Amino acid sequence: MDGWQIMEQAGELARRGEAFALATVVWRQGPSSGQLGARAIITASGDLHGFIGGACAEPSVIRQARQVIADGKARLLLLGRSEQFGDAIPEGMTVVPISCQSEGALQVYVEPVVPAPHLVVVGVSPMAVALADLARVLGWRAELRDWTEFSAADADERSMVVVATQGHGDEEAVEQAVAARPAYLGLVGSRRRGAAVLGYLADRGVPQDQLDRVRVPAGLDLGRTAHAEIAVSILAELVKLRASGQLGPAALSMPQPPAEAAAAGEPAEVVDPVCGMTVTAGPEGRPLQHDGTTYYFCRAGCRSEFESSPASYAKRETRC
Q1: Main-chain phi, psi angles of 24, to 5 degrees
Q2: End-to-end CA, the chain
Q3: Phi and psi (nearest 5°) for 135?
Q4: Prior bond to 283 cis, omega within 30?
Q5: What angle do CA 136, 140, 144 make, to 5 degrees?
Q6: Counting CB atoms within 10 angstroms of each CB, which of 110, 131, 213, 293 has the fewest?
Q7: In the structure, what pLDDT confidence band is assigned to residue 53 with cuts at 50, 70 and 90?
Q8: pLDDT of res. 82
């Protein structure tokens, strides 16, 4: 893909609500396969689309990009051998050692692209319309659905759903909403009305743990308020919950942090004992067993060097 195709794909990913990172080569020292202005998209799962460098640079950029997605902070990477740069490294730059045989170097700017929060408002009352409009002012992706048109397919675990049908299809809308398991589900109505709706759904066999996640009444308690002010109270609650992290990474459109991803079964990251690069502890890491320990390498040359003199490297710490 060329640069413009990458940007088109980035726009499509953003429209689908997927978090990703955009990597751009901003400086190169030849010889290097990475070229100025080259771009690539890296997804939260580590898939790369585009080209920013060869076999040495690519895995390092992917690794850093996944961390950028997780913490939401951009990084300027300096990729090369540490002896190439000495003390002339600007403050704030992340140095990533790579043992590229071409002896080239790259600077890559990696920025997170986190989709806007997704809000689904079920209902067509003036209050529901006001809530959707206010959310769009914040830059959120806000959708308005009549209860007859709403289904669990309209939301997912990253969505926030507010059922504001105000007596018209409350039960049906909440039943569809809980099936989507959104990060937030609120019902506009009194506590008495909420108890009736949830009791009806419990009798229908909806699991209690799902019903317990329904917030009713939705919104902060601002006392006696007009319809438009109820919309403000609901949006205020959503902003407060997101800012405090109570809705979790899902509501922030963020993937699992690396530590949680590793706990979920993803391959661990280790250090190549020869060159010091961080590599994945999997088949692509060219595993080699020595004295009961498995070592991993960034390239065949490092593995060969280890094999020729294992005593020189075997005692080095290999875990990240």
Answers
A1: -130, 130
A2: 33
A3: -65, -40
A4: no
A5: 65
A6: 293
A7: confident
A8: 61
DSSP letter for each residue of 262-304: HHTTPPPEEE-TTT--EEESSGGG--EEETTEEE--SSHHHHH
Place of tokens 């920025």: 111
How far is C-alpha 195 from the chain's CA centre? 35
110 beta partners? 23, 75
Give 221 or 201, the one with higher predicted confidence: 201
Asked if 248 and 159 count as a contact pair (C-beta separation under 8 A), the reply is no
- Please tell me what DSSP assigns to residue 115: P
Predicted TM-score (pTM) of this structure? 0.62
Structure tokens at 7: 């940007």
Tokens of 139: 């830059």
CB 57 within 8 A of CB 106: yes
Lowest mean pLDDT among 84-88, 193-197, 284-288: 84-88
Contact 201, 174 (CB under 8 A): yes
Range(s) of the chain covered by CATH 3.40.50.720 = 118-251
Model pLDDT for residues 231-286, shown as the tens digit of each residue: 999 999 999 998 888 886 555 554 444 454 444 455 677 888 888 777 888 888 89
Closest CA to 99 of 311, 304, 282: 304
Which token pair is 123?
């209902």
The three-class DSSP label of residue 154 is helix
